[in-house]
Design a protein that fits this description.
Strand order of the largest sheet: 1-2-3-9
Radius of gyration: 23 Å
Number of strands: 17
Helix content: 10-25%
Length: about 325
């Protein structure tokens, strides 16, 4: 069925100059053009994710992508096509995984559900990902993203689908840039030692209208997460979650934001760095959603107290009671 529908779509010419943005004004724009840097070699870099894409499906030519015909390939052939491509002089193209390809879906549009200023003449057809379907979902199947409405479905390997290539670009971020998860980069340690270089705060309204309030937890216990340095928050959060006693740590660790699930509660010094960069001026509530309250760190003091940072009083350290004081949670991630 997928193959038949795809072949029929090939007979329908793509409409150049189609509406580029929302068909439904009640849904916010997910892929605004300013998030992309378009290059003259037919590639485009998504500044939010750091990924470089081919603007055109394989088989068509930039800049309009209306010359030629998109290739309709099986999954195995699509993988081979990606691995052998040297488009624009790069030799490290690949098929995107499911999450990467889904990051291009423009949810406020359909037919195609994509920003056509960035990806012109995109047909509303299935595009392969490199992600195999889970066992039992379908025999010998992989995920495709259906660019008519933007949802993903598993299809058999011998089905025909289009392909758009991607490569990972080593991007250098500046403090204050929008990070890969849509938050703000607030710390750069200058190297990739330990598998990470940057710290990114969760974006404004990551959990609704405001950052959630909670008691810190672990009253009467000493878990041992008294480390305060930058780089300590992730391990401390994992220890607190394993102990099963900190609601603040659990809330941060369970966050899934813009497809990323590697969030944690910052250590004291990580939280101080976030305050220094983001809680500046008089409008940090409107700009970053930060409240003038005490924010929870993953650094405990003893069986009774833990460390918070006062976002109302200039970023000073506050010792809060684990079970009585209310603290605010803003997760961070390292990348």
């Amino acid at each position: 069925m997928i193959r038949r529908a795809w072949l029929l779509c090939l007979l329908v010419p793509a409409l150049a100059g189609a509406q580029s943005y929302c068909d439904n004004d009640n849904i916010p724009v997910h892929t605004p053009s300013e998030e992309f840097e378009i290059h003259v070699d037919g590639t485009v870099t998504h500044l939010r994710t750091g990924l470089m894409w081919t603007r055109c499906p394989v088989g068509t030519q930039p800049p309009t992508c209306s010359f030629g015909a998109p290739k309709a390939l099986s999954w195995e052939m699509a993988l081979q096509e990606a691995a052998s491509s040297d488009f624009a002089g790069y030799g490290d193209w690949r098929l995107p995984n499911r999450a990467e390809l889904a990051s291009l879906v423009e949810h406020c549009r359909f037919g195609p559900a994509v920003n056509e200023d960035v990806f012109p003449s995109t047909l509303p057809v299935p595009f392969w990902t490199s992600t195999p379907a889970a066992p039992g979902a379908a025999p010998e199947a992989a995920w495709v993203v259906m660019f008519h409405e933007g949802h993903a479905v598993p299809v058999k390997h011998d089905s025909a689908a289009a392909i758009r290539l991607v490569r990972t670009v080593k991007r250098v971020y500046k403090v204050g840039d929008v990070g890969p998860a849509g938050g703000i980069v607030f710390y750069d340690k200058g190297d990739d030692a330990g598998g990470w270089r940057y710290l990114e705060a969760a974006p404004k309204a990551w959990s609704g209208a405001h950052d959630p309030w909670v008691t810190w937890g672990c009253a009467g216990m000493v878990v041992g997460t008294n480390a305060t340095a930058i780089g300590a928050g992730k391990a401390s959060t994992a220890a607190l979650v394993a102990a099963g006693c900190s609601d603040a740590a659990r809330m941060a660790a369970e966050a899934v934001i813009n497809g990323h699930d590697d969030w944690f509660l910052p250590s004291r010094d990580e939280l101080v760095a976030m305050h220094t960069v983001l809680a500046v001026g008089t409008n940090f509530l409107d700009k970053h959603g930060l409240q003038p309250m005490s924010y929870a760190s993953a650094s405990e003091i003893d069986a009774i107290g833990a460390i918070a940072i006062d976002f109302a009083g200039g970023g000073g350290e506050v010792q809060v009671h684990k079970s009585l004081a209310t603290v605010v949670v803003r997760p961070v991630r390292a990348f």
